[in-house]
Amino acid sequence: xxxxxxxxxxxxxxxxxxxxxxxxxxxxxxxxxxxxxxxxxxxxxxxxxxxxxxxxxxxxxxxxxxxxxxxxxxxxxxxxxxxxxxxxxxxxxxxxxxxxxxxxxxxxxxxxxxxxxxxxxxxxxxxxxxxxxxxxxxxxxxxxxxxxxxxxxxxxxxxxxxxxxxxxxxxxxxxxxxxxxxxxxxxxxxxxxxxxxxxxxxxxxxxxxxxxxxxxxxxxxxxxxxxxxxxxxxxxxxxxxxxxxxxxxxxxxxxxxxxxxxxxxxxxxxxxxxxxxxxxxxxxx
Amino acid sequence: xxxxxxxxxxxxxxxxxxxxxxxxxxxxxxxxxxxxxxxxxxxxxxxxxxxxxxxxxxxxxxxxxxxxxxxxxxxxxxxxxxxxxxxxxxxxxxxxxxxxxxxxxxxxxxxxxxxxxxxxxxxxxxxxxxxxxxxxxxxxxxxxxxxxxxxxxxxxxxxxxxxxxxxxxxxxxxxxxxxxxxxxxxxxxxxxxxxxxxxxxxxxxxxxxxxxxxxxxxxxxxxxxxxxxxxxxxxxxxxxxxxxxxxxxxxxxxxxxxxxxxxxxxxxxxxxxxxxxxxxxxxxxxxxxxxxxxxxxxxxxxxxxxxxxxxxxxxxxxxxxxxxxxxxxxxxxxxxxxxxxxxxxxxxxxxxxxxxxxxxxxxxxxxxxxxxxxxxxxxxxxxxxxxxxxxxxxxxxxxxxxxxxxxxxxxxxxxxxxxxxxxxxxxxxxxxxxxxxx
Lengths: 285, 438
Fold this sequence. Notes:
The structure holds 2 protein chains of 2 kinds.
Chain A: H1 2-35, E1 39-40, E2 45-46, H2 52-59, H3 61-95, H4 99-110, H5 117-122, H6 124-128, H7 133-140, H8 155-179, H9 183-191, H10 196-225, H11 228-233, H12 241-250, H13 254-278, H14 281-284
Chain B: H1 3-14, H2 20-41, H3 44-50, E1 55-60, H4 67-77, E2 80-85, H5 88-97, E3 104-108, H6 109-115, E4 121-122, E5 124-125, E6 152-153, E7 161-162, E8 177-178, E9 181-192, E10 216-219, H7 222-236, H8 249-264, E11 268-272, H9 275-283, E12 289-292, H10 294-302, E13 308-310, E14 316-326, H11 331-344, H12 348-355, E15 359-360, H13 363-367, H14 372-380, E16 388-389, E17 395-397, H15 408-412, E18 415-418, H16 425-437
Parallel strand pairs in B: 1-2, 1-3, 6-18, 10-11, 10-12, 14-18
Antiparallel strand pairs in B: 3-14, 4-14, 5-8, 7-8, 9-12, 9-13, 9-14, 9-15, 16-17
Helix pairs in contact in B: 2-4, 5-6, 7-8, 8-16, 9-10
């Protein structure tokens, strides 16, 4: 009897969450999967069951080059945000001694987030442009004679904006993990004769892994699905998977967009699964 | 056109009302229209009573979706015109799939080619339109002047008429039944920064001139971008087209291959998709030659930066839109719609559009609403005697300026190709995506 009641109350308690997931996640996803098998012409989508959307998508060299490009952005952004995020978090967690200052400096990290990320991104454009602030400064200082063209509307610009936009997503979870590290472990390492680098390698990095994994998931999923940064910072000259989907929607090719979305979803899920294989996040939460 | 251009047009227009001269003339027409309405319907008294209750819902892509027009309709004709602005894809889809959601469709001619056959619109009886006779010949038989050549692509007159009242087959000759009354149209070409280019530009081929390596741009809206690309390839002599408005797969492939080569050589600085982007690229000097729209050139100039809408020897790529009636309209609403369309052609709107640098469908009627100097500048390619003002009174050009490309006849008379939708549209879009991803 007692177990029956508790079972029933358990079901009752998970109902709201399950309902929210069903309405806002499962149903839209199922719809997308169904539509990805439909046909379309200029103005309509036609219920059908065809594999053409997928066969074109997977068979086209464009798709592969777009995926390669997107993965390149994701990998570079991940690398730089990780280096920056880890360094900032390490500084905050281990070099700043007082809790007040930790909180103050942590708040400082969030200041750029008080403005919209579109604004933060667009403000790079006049800075990096041919006649922009940076190029004018470099020319005036006599460092270069010609404006550096690669600064704007290039892969460099895309990765720069991505790193700028998403570095905090890496700082926060890593900082959180580091703050949970028992300080006595570090003392023990020192007492056992470990150098600073060895402590970092054998104690801090392994114990920060859950934070690194969570930060990585944030950054990689956001960059994989991004379209506006790529469009604005590459000057429309590079493509990403998100941009491809956005273009297809603009042209009313919903089934093609749905197929692209399904393939992207699978790709990102594979990446996330691989990350979770490497680090058991649940153990640490 | 996309939604962006509309937004900018709207922003330009919302803050200021009509000039006093415009108002006085408008009032004169209001009286004229009131008398005219009686002549058309035959029962003026009932009309005057009921007309105020009519609301016509207009939706469209148009740069012509201008609030000032809605206000003027209320003032002159008494009924309410609700306007909704959508992008061209959404307009096309809605015209086909939700035929009862609109009364008046404001669509581009190439959209009309796809939409009208779906049977959700009805043709207009031209005998009910007093001002029909003033419509530019360009929209009747495709010839602005008797000796002009008919351009490629979806030339408006080819989809301007149907065989009969209930027909959806486009007529090859002008008939009594018109699909769309033209509202707004223009001829597009390349914009350049004359201060940063030291040689004359006279051909579309100049877009891919290595001298402008890293300083060129093309618009990234596939259906329009491909046309600009085709103008370039044809001018270079690399591809010959049967009809640039309806290319074969082979022609598309060749065109895109040339563009991909140019992209890989680093010819392009950026691609633009919205009106603002094209303005910024040009104003900042990132780009010195690119596809552009006329109001964008005006926007660059208004920042005090030299920008020229360069006429080219191969001619212009033109676009045009018009308004048509929904199938479900009948009775008083249909009469009101006819009244509105006739009013549209009667001159006030035409003058308004001309002052924005577009063209009115019935130039003769618009002339009455413009000063001699305005008419000379915008339509006849003459030097402005005084400052030229936009419809909301902002100085657009200083005295002495001459319109790029010259007169109406010179510009609209040398259209090489009209915006269109191709039979191989799906293939074209895929190839265009290859170009962007390359």
